[in-house]
């Protein structure tokens, strides 16, 4: 069952109306159809753009977090290595 539609009145500059009429004639559609499709297309594209921006920000944030975790891990490994070398005196005697 088709949902009831509501009337929406908008004001457009004359040049945009001329473009709209030229486009609708070429597409064999009504003004109403073209405007509906244009609004739908705009909202879909805007949603995609916003989602891509959110994903980009998320990846950048994760990159910062991953770098911090890697630095912490490196510090821990370095401390463990120092501790290991301190407990193994024969390592200090080997001339490299």
From TrEMBL:
GO biological process, one term: regulation of DNA-templated transcription
Superkingdom classification of source: Bacteria
Domain (Ribbon-helix-helix protein CopG) ranges: 8-41
InterPro entries: Arc_rbn_hlx_hlx (IPR013321), CopG (IPR002145)
Protein known as: CopG family transcriptional regulator / antitoxin EndoAI
């Amino acid at each position: 069952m088709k949902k009831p539609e509501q009337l929406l009145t908008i004001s457009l500059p004359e040049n945009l109306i001329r473009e709209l009429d030229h486009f609708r004639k070429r597409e064999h559609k009504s003004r109403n159809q073209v405007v509906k499709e244009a609004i739908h297309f705009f909202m879909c594209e805007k949603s995609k753009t916003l989602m891509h921006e959110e994903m980009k920000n998320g990846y950048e944030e994760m990159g910062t977090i991953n770098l911090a975790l890697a630095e912490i891990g490196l510090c821990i490994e370095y401390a463990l290595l120092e501790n290991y070398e301190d407990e193994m005196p024969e390592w200090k005697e080997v001339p490299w």
